[in-house]
Design brief:
The longest helix has about 80 residues. The protein has an 18-stranded parallel sheet that branches. Strands 1-4 form a two-stranded parallel sheet. It has 7 helices and 20 strands. It is α/β, with parallel strands linked by helices. The chain has 2 domains: about 180 residues, no CATH class; about 160 residues, no CATH class. The protein starts with a helix and ends with a helix.
Length: about 450
Amino acid sequence: MLKKKIKIISLIVLLLISLFTPIVNAENEIAVEATTTDQVNPISETQEEITIKEGDEYLFQDTVTIDTPVDGNLFIMANTVTINTQVGGDAFIFANTLNIEENGYILNNVFACANTINVKGVVYNIYSVGDTLTIDGFVYRDVRSICNTLNINSMIGRNVFANCSSINFKEKPDTEDTPSIASYGTIQGDLNYFSDEEITIPEDSVAGETHFTALKNNTVNISNYMHSLGAILVSAIIIWLIGLWISPKLLHNTSHPITLRKALQIIGLGILVPIIIALVSFIILLIPITSQFTILLLCVLAILFFISTSVAIIDINTMICNKLKVTQNLYKLGFLIVTTIIFWLLTLIPYVGMVISLISIIWGIGTISYSILIKEKSDEKKSDSNKKISNSEKKKEKVESKTEKENASDKSTNTKKEKKSDDVTNSKEENKSDETEKNEKQNKETDKNND
């Protein structure tokens, strides 16, 4: 039992380290490189009197405006977000409209998923998904975006990687004076873009090289399907091997068949557990002391969603192997590969595949929750009942042995009594016969005398 707990704890620690290590490294790297941007200082001199919010900010509102400097990361979900001050960390934005105003200065990266993104201030890197991205300010390094329209009206310090339908540059003005490099759209590095058709790029707008890749919507890329199949196969096999290492009984347990009641409990847990984790995360987020634990809970929820499909496939494979009475692990691995391929083919069916994927996620999360919350208790109850049954059986055996001994003693006494009674009757009969003989002799003698 102790070895099993050590294995589980070590796996959880490794997962958490792998999740949090990239975030720590990114902060350290950006903090060093941010010192090179001292020449850009859009913050006013009076900002020293303004209090600075230390630590990360978590905001969930309809309209969010950041006017006070934040010495940490921003996590915002809103309809409209406006950043009009300095942010010392990264900005994670999920909104309909994101506006980074002229006084907005984000020392690190912007990760944005928004319909409209307007950048008028200074940003270190931009990673965005949306409909329109307009850059009127200054991007210190790279822009990586998936959008419909990309408008570049100012300078981008390094490269642009875009998947978009159109790219618009603010052209260089025709004046006698030499215009500022930030007064028109320029890319100081390379431009790499994916589009249906090649886009006309103005001269002197890209200092480096321009690379165009045409999107092919009508062709089927078999490699993508192979990567998808390989990913689900590797995931299922790795989780199966981990389960075989931690608890082999779970992979060939025939003493707990899937009943209707158990199936309903698994489905119910698969629906309720994600909802409960999300609600608890939201409640913890509102409490300043425990807000840091929200990331941990969300990571746990992400891990559950990630492994749920593989757990559902392993559960189906276990039921098939139990039905066919397959006991060797090598054969179970072969059945697992076949089951995974069949499941993957079913998910490719339009509409039906989405339903199957959703059911597998619910079933996988429910199976994990059931094994943690319910199964151990039921096993304890069954072990207690088995102990009680064994004790009662022992008592019955003792009682039966006593009754057998008593019956044997009774039989021996009865046989002795029968023997005594037989001896008595035999002696009586012998006495009677002796008396009858004597009487006959006496009668004969009397007859002789009479004669």
